[in-house]
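Private note to self, pasted from the team thread so I don't lose it. Backbone tokens:
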């Protein structure tokens, strides 16, 4: 009798996940993007939310909760019930960097408070120099950084930003040293590059591509694994002699850790289906991004990889 009851109980547990997924969502789902409207994270989130709404039968409502470099919104989701009705669409690199910088560490543990659902898009970074700088290749840039007297300056979107940490990573890889100039966002950094106040930036390609034709900046390389469709003639850093260098800005969907696996799996599968839609791929390409969805396991591994990578960079650079 006890054995029969145990088997019945186990069968009930096994069925609970699929049943829960079938019943979910029964009401609107809020998707928190931890940045203001109009940025790459917000745009990607809204593209996916539109199709999630259509395919899942309930509204997926974008809620912008900006502040603290994205951590106000991320903390809100980390502290939410794992019922599938509170999700985070965030910049994976930024979340990983905050997890390893002591002064920026959020009030939750990234790998234990949140679980990966799916990536949504990927955006390459690029190394851009001011138009009159005497460097037309990465090797020339490195040589100039070592022989240029006062040294070179690179701007970023802020201390501890992905752009800043990519600059630190590049210096460690190239065995060179430049002076970091932090700004309050990518816009001011690119404006000062165009104005000649700084020598170079490590910046997302969409923020730079529209400025190339003016001649006030020059893109020397992209940091992604493959060349960009936007600038097919620009080499990757791997092609420029750094075979292990790869930095891509990923935007993806996460959920509270206690969210049932059945819901996570259903969400991930739908994200993957959406990423294959031609209209979604085209909409993201207009923003300089590539549609990129993934399984929960792959998403979690990518987040772990980002934490490991930036942890090593932080350890050597002592970014605070």
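Design output:
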């Amino acid at each position: 009798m006890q054995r029969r009851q145990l088997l019945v109980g186990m069968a009930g547990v096994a069925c609970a996940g699929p049943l829960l997924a079938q019943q979910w969502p029964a009401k609107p789902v809020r998707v928190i993007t931890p940045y203001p409207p109009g940025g790459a994270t917000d745009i990607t989130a809204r593209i996916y939310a539109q199709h999630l709404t259509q395919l899942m039968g309930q509204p997926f409502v974008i809620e912008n909760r900006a502040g603290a470099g994205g951590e106000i919104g991320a903390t809100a989701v980390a502290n939410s019930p794992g019922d599938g009705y509170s999700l985070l669409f965030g910049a994976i690199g930024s979340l990983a960097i905050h997890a390893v910088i002591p002064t920026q560490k959020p009030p939750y543990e990234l790998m234990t408070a949140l679980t990966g659902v799916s990536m949504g898009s990927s955006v390459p970074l690029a190394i851009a120099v001011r138009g009159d700088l005497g460097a037309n290749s990465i090797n020339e840039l490195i040589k100039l950084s070592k022989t240029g007297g006062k040294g070179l300056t690179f701007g970023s979107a802020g201390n501890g930003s992905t752009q800043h940490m990519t600059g630190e990573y590049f210096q460690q890889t190239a065995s060179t040293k430049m002076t970091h100039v932090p700004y309050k966002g990518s816009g001011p950094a690119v404006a000062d590059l165009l104005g000649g106040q700084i020598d170079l930036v490590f910046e997302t390609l969409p923020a730079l591509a529209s400025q190339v034709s003016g001649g006030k900046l020059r893109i020397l390389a992209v940091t992604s694994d493959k060349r960009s469709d936007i600038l097919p003639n620009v080499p990757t850093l791997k092609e420029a002699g750094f075979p292990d260098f790869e930095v891509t800005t990923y935007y993806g969907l996460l959920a509270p850790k206690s969210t049932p696996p059945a819901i996570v799996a259903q969400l991930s599968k739908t994200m993957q289906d959406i990423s294959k839609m031609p209209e979604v791929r085209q909409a993201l390409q207009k923003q300089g991004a590539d549609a990129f969805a993934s399984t929960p396991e792959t998403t979690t591994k990518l987040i772990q990889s980002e934490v490991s990578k930036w942890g090593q960079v932080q350890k050597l650079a002592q970014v605070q």
